[in-house]
């Protein structure tokens, strides 16, 4: 096979509606060099023809781009030898979105789905020497509005409602955390392939026996073309890269192999074991010549979602088991890293997913309003041990269900399932995001709903299920998220989105335990991004929380879909902390509230993972891991890759061992959570202090943490006066988990860090101590510094040690609850 990428010599221009199309393609003016793969906005920015849409209020200045049509053109050379090949195929891996392709002036393709690949037989259309490609991209907004006028306005949360008629990344239309940037362009690879026979698909549906002692690795090879005298050679390499088995067969269409492995090296989620990956190498030979080869990496594991009775309660569990082990799944929702997708590098993917792994997460959910992510994303999840909950790309809307729309969706789903099904990390396919929820909201689903109005229900319950069960039967298909059978808000079945806190009634974040679900696949609370992001994205005179620019970068839609984030942030601040005096304190206060909310959420949800037969809550995925632009949002990592305090809170609550405390009517409830496979005898220390740092009481006892469940510990009767409580869990002499309780609401008390000491050492070691209880100590030293721990609650008299990887400055800035402004501590020289 000969494969040529056609990524050079591309030009683009805005379509002149007054000119005939081919005249416009042949025009000599208005053209600029185009990046392929890429988008119009990416190139306009590169050529300095538009301002940065992420800066200030510039988003408003670039809306005209999505309302215009755009042209791309290129010329490429084809040799006479290449034309002799039996098969010549031109492939567009992704066109965004309403596009018409011309080859040598002849129309060869019309596409209206960003997520589908198109392969064209161009034998007989190519010429020796120069050939031309031309692509017209029509305005997605104008085409969408025309379709909406014909089919009717449909209910949608977020973005222009016409988005429902187009198979385009829905977040491009704007979301309650993102801007409106309606991209167009050749956003994936273009290639020309010449062959006699080719490897069209390789499927490796590996299976591990229930006793985990044997793995079966079928290899299904689909060929296209003339298979006469062709052979397929398949090798199996173990995770160390050593060939352990091989087979050769005369090529057929299809051709299947089977490897059997005794004592397989099993793939586990991060923190539960290693991630060994076997490699299946497939070679296609014909007439003694190697024509093509493909390598597929696969992990050997058993993943099940167990839905069984929960002892003493209604409904059923929703519990992930990997290699016969049930465990609490902690993780996050993933949105695309950028609006201009081709600007996201492999290094950026790795950095963000490593951050998730390092926060003790075991799952990321690829949300249905974005994209099916790049191959590198899933490769990294395989390597890092991050299970993937994969949505199909539908979000927050009442989509059409006509035959043409269904046919496009079926092609999209078949291609994406084939592309992703070999990944060890793939744990679940999900039909949509919140489409059942909006259907219930408009009376088309749920108790008393008229399901005849839910036109896309067939897509979620029949079409996508058929595709998944045919092409990837080993992976569970789930109709939607949330989905609980007859009622999407059911707390006892399926998965649930908990938005009573922040959205809805705006319940206090301390009440997460009242809004649980068997698997909580969305919940969150907003905060501002880092001060660094504010400084990078706004002019200096607008860098205050009430400015027009700051509010523009604080979306969060409320009633009537109007931006409401600033108001809701103000409410949660007013309920919990004293008013901010400057930008730095505003950022700190909002991030503290987000972190505290996550402490309550993860601690209370994990507390309900009580052991076999009593998996009342089996997982929690925070909304959201990352940001796609500089914004106040629910993300725990901002658009510059800087983690927020909530990141460290979640990291602690997802450790193998945690201790939880809760003050209830003068009694300090205490419990342990373990994800270990065996019991562990530990020492529990509990302390009570006055706000001035005087120790009032201390208790020490031995405790036995049972494996993979919650273990209750006897409660502690304490004073009714406002006190600060600490709990420490020790293994030998090492503190392996901590918890604290400061009296709430925080605004009623003075927690100023009067005696805080911070010792910054040259090797990146930072020591902290205080004579008073200190809440929420946040350390910062610029970009590029990674803290082993942060956002700390300090017990009087203890010395806490954290490590700052990449610390290059002598100064560390320190914020804490009650501090008038950040404190600065410098490294002592000649110590």
Overall geometry: globular
**Major β-sheet profile:** 6 strands, antiparallel
Q: Which fold does the CATH topology of the largest domain refer to?
A: TIM Barrel
Termini Cα gap: 67 Å
Can you tell me the CATH architecture of the largest domain? Alpha-Beta Barrel
Helix content: 10-25%
Number of strands: 46
- Determine the CATH superfamily of the largest domain: Glycosidases
Q: What's the total helix number?
A: 14
- The mean pLDDT is 95
Strand content: 25-35%
Number of domains: 5
CATH C-level class of the largest domain is Alpha Beta
Rg value: 28 Å
Which segments are poorly predicted (pLDDT under 50) over 5 or more consecutive residues?
none
Question: What would your notes on this structure say?
Answer:
By secondary structure, this protein is an alpha+beta fold. The chain has five domains: about 1-195, Galactose-binding domain-like (Jelly Rolls, Sandwich), CATH 2.60.120; about 205-300, Immunoglobulins (Immunoglobulin-like, Sandwich), CATH 2.60.40.10; about 330-530 and about 595-645, TIM Barrel; about 655-745, Immunoglobulin-like (Sandwich); about 750-830, Immunoglobulin-like. It is built from 14 helices and 46 strands. The strands form twelve sheets. It has a six-stranded antiparallel β-sheet with strand order 3-2-4-9-6-7. Strands 28-27-26-25-24-31 form a six-stranded parallel β-sheet, covered by helices on one side. Strands 1-12-5-8 form a four-stranded antiparallel β-sheet, with no helix packed on it. Strand 24, helix 5 and strand 25 (about 365) form a beta-alpha-beta unit. Helix 13 (about 585-605) runs parallel beside helix 14. The longest helix is centred in the C-terminal third of the chain and has 25 residues, at about 585-605.
């Amino acid at each position: 096979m000969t494969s040529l990428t056609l990524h050079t010599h591309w030009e683009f221009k805005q379509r002149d509606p007054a000119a005939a199309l081919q005249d416009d393609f042949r025009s000599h003016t208005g053209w600029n060099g185009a990046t392929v793969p890429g988008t119009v906005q990416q190139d306009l920015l590169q050529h300095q023809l538009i301002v940065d849409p992420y800066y200030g209020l510039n988003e408003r200045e670039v809306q005209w781009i999505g309302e215009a049509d755009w042209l791309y053109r290129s010329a490429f050379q084809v040799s006479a030898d290449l034309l002799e090949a039996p098969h010549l195929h031109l492939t567009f891996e992704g066109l965004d979105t309403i596009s018409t392709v011309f080859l040598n002036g002849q129309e060869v393709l019309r596409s209206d789905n960003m997520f589908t690949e198109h392969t064209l037989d161009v034998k007989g259309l190519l010429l020796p020497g120069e050939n031309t490609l031309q692509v017209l991209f029509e305005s997605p907004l104008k085409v969408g509005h025309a379709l909406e006028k014909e089919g009717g306005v449909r209910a949608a949360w977020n973005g222009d409602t016409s988005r429902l008629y187009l198979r385009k990344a829905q977040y491009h239309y704007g979301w309650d955390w993102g801007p409106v940037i309606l991209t167009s362009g050749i956003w994936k690879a273009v290639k020309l392939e010449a062959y006699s026979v080719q490897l069209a698909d390789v499927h490796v549906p590996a299976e591990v026996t229930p006793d985990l002692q044997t793995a079966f690795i079928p290899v299904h090879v689909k060929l296209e073309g003339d298979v006469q005298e062709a052979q397929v050679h398949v090798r199996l390499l173990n995770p160390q890269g050593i060939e352990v088995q091989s087979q050769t067969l005369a090529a057929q269409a299809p051709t299947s192999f089977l490897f059997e492995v005794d004592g397989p090296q099993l793939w586990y989620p991060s923190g539960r074991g290693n991630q060994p990956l076997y490699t299946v190498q497939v070679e296609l030979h014909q007439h003694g010549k190697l024509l093509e080869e493909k390598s597929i990496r696969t992990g050997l594991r058993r993943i099940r979602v167990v839905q069984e009775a929960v002892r003493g309660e209604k409904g059923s569990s929703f519990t992930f088991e990997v290699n016969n082990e049930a465990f609490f799944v902690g993780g996050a929702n993933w949105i695309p890293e950028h609006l201009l997708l081709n600007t996201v590098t492999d290094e950026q993917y790795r950095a963000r997913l490593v951050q998730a792994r390092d926060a003790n997460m075991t799952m990321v959910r690829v949300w249905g309003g974005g994209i099916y992510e790049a191959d590198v994303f899933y490769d990294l999840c395989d390597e890092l041990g991050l299970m993937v909950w994969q949505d199909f790309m539908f979000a927050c809307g009442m989509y059409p269900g006509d035959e043409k729309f269904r046919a496009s969706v079926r092609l999209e789903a078949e291609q994406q399932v084939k592309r992703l099904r070999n990944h060890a990390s793939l744990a679940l396919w999900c039909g949509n995001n919140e489409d059942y929820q909006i259907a219930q909201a408009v009376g088309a689903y749920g108790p008393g709903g008229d399901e005849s109005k839910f036109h896309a229900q067939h897509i979620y319950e029949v079409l996508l299920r058929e595709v998944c069960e045919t092409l990837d039967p080993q992976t569970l298909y789930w109709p939607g998220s949330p989905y609980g059978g007859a009622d999407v808000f059911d707390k006892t079945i399926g998965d649930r989105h908990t938005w009573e806190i922040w959205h809805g009634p705006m319940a206090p974040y301390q009440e997460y335990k009242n809004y649980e679900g068997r698997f909580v696949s969305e919940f969150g609370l907003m905060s501002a991004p880092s001060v660094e992001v504010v400084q990078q994205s706004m002019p200096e005179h607008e860098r205050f929380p009430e400015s027009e620019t700051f509010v523009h970068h604080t979306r969060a839609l409320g009633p009537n879909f109007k931006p409401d984030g600033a108001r809701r942030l103000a409410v949660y601040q007013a309920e919990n902390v004293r008013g901010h005096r400057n930008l730095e304190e505003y950022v700190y206060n909002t991030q503290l509230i987000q972190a505290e909310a996550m402490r309550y959420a993860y601690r209370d949800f994990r507390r309900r993972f009580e052991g076999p037969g009593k998996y009342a809550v089996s997982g929690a995925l925070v909304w959201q891991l990352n940001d796609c632009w500089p914004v106040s949002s629910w993300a725990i990592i901002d658009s510059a890759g800087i983690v927020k305090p909530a990141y460290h809170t979640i990291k602690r609550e997802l450790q193998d061992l945690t201790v939880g405390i809760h003050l209830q009517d003068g009694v300090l409830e205490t419990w342990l959570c373990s994800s270990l496979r065996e019991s562990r005898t530990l020492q529990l220390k509990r302390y009570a202090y006055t706000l001035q740092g005087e120790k009032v009481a201390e208790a020490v006892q031995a405790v036995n943490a049972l494996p993979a469940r919650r273990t209750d510990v006897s409660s502690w009767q304490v004073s009714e006066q406002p006190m600060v409580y600490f709990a420490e869990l020790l293994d030998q002499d090492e503190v392996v988990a901590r918890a604290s309780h400061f009296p709430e609401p925080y605004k009623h008390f003075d927690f100023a860090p009067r005696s805080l000491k911070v010792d910054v050492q040259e090797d990146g070691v930072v020591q902290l101590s205080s004579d008073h209880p200190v809440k929420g100590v946040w350390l910062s030293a610029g970009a590029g510094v990674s803290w082993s721990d942060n956002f700390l609650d300090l017990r009087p008299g203890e010395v806490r040690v954290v490590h700052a990887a990449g610390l290059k400055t002598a100064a560390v800035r320190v914020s804490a609850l009650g501090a008038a402004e950040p404190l600065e501590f410098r490294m002592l020289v000649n110590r």
